[in-house]
């Protein structure tokens, strides 16, 4: 089996990155995490990646005169490492249209809401303010508009009375750690086709994706 070479871009904690790294430890997983890049030196996830033996890089966006220059440096690092697929995992920088187009259909992101609801920041606060009874997370291909793009996988969790943004975020995060490795596996295996900006999953290659992606656990 050919394992696709994947880079993960992070800015902080890196728990989704860690979930991808853990999944990729399985011999049958179709991707290897070949590089982790952070735009903040204090991103906790960098230590985790380094201790897992994964090459890491740090690019301070403050060291570049423009977004284009920063993205060009990122792009060069990815190409130098023969990266084929890129996962954004809590990467808190907007990427330029040029970068997004250069990696079109090879660049995916995880967002902590059931898109297209609640793009942007503070999604858990927004979900509580809206009074929705279901909330969740989405893995999607990246397009230029923020938090848009064809949806690969979603997980839903209940919103419970008494929830705070933190309790809700913790419940959603369980779903994030479940669907991101699944979505990357489908992409790496070539199981995804984009038709009219919607994702179709090849039933022969993506059997596990046919299972319902719903609440991973419903607390009593
Ligand atoms: C996650 O909630 C992710 O959905 C969002 O940023 C957060 C990153 O968390 N994009 P972590 O760094 O993966 O722990």
Describe the structure.
The chain is globular and about 50 Å long. It has a 7-stranded mixed sheet, with helices on one face. A two-stranded antiparallel sheet has the order 8-9. With 220 residues, the chain is α/β, with parallel strands linked by helices. Helix content is 32%, strand content 23%. Bound molecules: 5-O-phosphono-beta-D-ribofuranosylamine. 5-O-phosphono-beta-D-ribofuranosylamine (GRF) binds at residues 10, 12-17, 89-90, 110-112, 137, 176.
Task: Write a short abstract of this structure.
The protein has 6 helices and 9 strands. It has 220 residues and is of the alpha/beta class. A hairpin with a 2-residue loop joins strand 8 and strand 9.
List keywords for this structure.
seven-stranded mixed β-sheet; 32% helix; disordered C terminus; 6 helices; alpha/beta; binds 5-O-phosphono-beta-D-ribofuranosylamine; 220 residues; two-stranded antiparallel sheet; 9 strands; globular
């Amino acid at each position: 089996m050919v394992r696709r070479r994947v880079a993960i871009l992070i800015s902080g904690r890196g728990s989704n990155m860690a979930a991808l790294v853990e999944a990729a430890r399985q011999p049958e997983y179709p991707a290897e995490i070949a590089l982790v890049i952070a735009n903040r030196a204090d991103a906790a996830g960098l230590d985790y990646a380094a201790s897992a033996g994964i090459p890491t890089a740090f690019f301070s966006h403050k060291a570049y005169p423009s977004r284009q220059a920063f993205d060009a440096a990122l792009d060069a690092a990815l190409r130098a490492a023969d990266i084929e697929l890129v996962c954004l995992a809590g990467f808190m920088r907007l990427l330029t249209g040029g970068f997004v187009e250069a990696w079109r259909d090879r660049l995916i992101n995880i967002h902590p809401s059931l898109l297209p609801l609640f793009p942007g920041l503070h999604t858990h606060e927004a979900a509580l303010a809206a009074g929705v009874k279901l909330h969740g997370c989405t893995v999607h291909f990246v397009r230029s508009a923020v938090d848009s793009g064809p949806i690969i996988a979603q997980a839903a969790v209940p919103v419970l009375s008494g929830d705070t943004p933190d309790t809700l975020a913790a419940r959603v995060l369980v779903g994030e750690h479940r669907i991101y490795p699944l979505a990357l596996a489908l992409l790496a295996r070539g199981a995804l086709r984009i038709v009219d900006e919607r994702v179709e999953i090849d039933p022969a290659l993506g059997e596990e994706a046919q299972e319902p992606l719903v609440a991973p656990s419903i607390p009593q």
